[in-house]
Write a structure and sequence with these properties.
Blueprint: H1 6-13, E1 16-19, E2 29-30, E3 41-43, H2 56-61, E4 66-69, H3 71-77, E5 85-88, H4 92-107, E6 110-115, H5 120-130, E7 135-137, H6 147-153, E8 161-165, H7 173-181, E9 185-188, H8 196-199, H9 202-209, H10 211-214, E10 221-225, E11 241-244, E12 251-258, E13 261-268, E14 271-277, H11 282-297, H12 302-306, E15 320-323, E16 329-332, H13 339-350, E17 355-360, H14 370-383, E18 388-392, E19 403-405, H15 408-416, E20 423-428, H16 436-448
Parallel strand pairs: 2-3, 3-4, 4-5, 6-8, 6-9, 7-8, 9-10, 10-11, 16-20, 17-18, 17-20, 18-19
Antiparallel strand pairs: 1-5, 12-13, 13-14, 15-16
Helix pairs in contact: 4-6, 5-11, 13-14, 15-16
Length: about 450
Amino acid sequence: MTGLEPEKMAREMGATIVGRGPGGSPGRAAIDSREIAGGELFFGLTGGQDDGGAFAEAAIAAGAWGVVVTPDRAERLASGDERAWVFASPDPLRSLQMLARLWRREMDATVIGITGSVGKTSVKDITRALLPGRVHASEENFNTEIGLPLTILAAPAGTEYLVLEMAMRGRGQIAELAAIAEPEVGVITNVGPVHVELLGSVEAVAAAKAELVEGLAADGTLIAPVEAGPLEKHLSSAPKVIRFGEGGDVTVTESETAGAGIKATVLTPRGSQEFDFPFPEAHNLANALAAIAAGLAAGASLRQLAAGTGRVTFSSLRGERIDLGERGLIINDCYNANPVSMRAALEHLAGLEGRRIAVLGVMAELGPEGDRYHAEIGDLARELGIETVVGVGPVARLYEPDHWAGDTADAAQAVERLLGPDVTVLVKGSRSAGLEDVTARLVRSRDRNTVI
């Protein structure tokens, strides 16, 4: 937030300055007083069980440049000792969001907003890697009405590309995030039966995701899959659409697996280019096409994008490959799960050599059709020839697994007995299943048995 003047910040935040502090401007925003290292603007968010404003004094003592709190707390903090700026706001969260929009405009970076039922984090990770120059992107799950503005406010001056993941839990949320970020490029990776429990139908999910279309700049570009399904009817209002996938504007003409990666020739409206990706999964190749389309729409060249493939890394718990040595390989993909991502993960597993084990937990928020979706995934695993399915938790009985475990400890014990040099273990379920504990237990067992 280099160069922002306190008075301008106050106007944009809808806040009043009631205490004046040191000169300069804050380095970043923070909502946790324990993370104050010096120079931050602390927002005392209200709501839930805790009132963040109660920790504003601690933030000031730790070296915060300033605090944004409700008027009653602001008056008590404005002691006149000039330790920190004190802003009084009737809604500190709204102030956080409006300050983020101000900084987004001051930076003049090209903003790419990414949402979708499946793959948005991976597309974000790939896009961040491929883009040239100074890129700032969402970390982990900083993709909500709080995380997105914090991401923007953490971007340094001179940022050229801002890559923002946008999560959705209900109607209006993508519109809210787009109003803060004002993206020139929007990416909707796909629409599937995710959050149906909250929204009622896949069509309603598509409508909620399509709020990104309305939030684009007037001359913006939407990146969408060739097979858009229920999203299709919403795309006509986009200023410009680039399709990715087989037969689309950005598509693969040739590909081959090369070790632990994929070499692919990608055809685009700007010509073709060979990419050497450091991942073997077909679904991540599709994610890469979305990222390439986004990069082109943001003004990068094909050559620049291809040069960034060596920087591709994925956020934690998303297709992480963990070598157990003589005991096999784990594909740790347990950040989330739904029928679309589960199918993609199982198909990738089925294409690997050796014995395959799928450790599957619940797919959450699927609504009234949840039982059917779970049963279909169990059927798919058998059709694909997965040798062993381990179900974890009550709902996982619907997979009709070969082994059923009541909890992650039981699941790890069951898998432990099946490990070997030719074994690959997929661990996948929604976050609520906590299947990362299965992976952690198997890794600890590996480490205990390693002789150095």
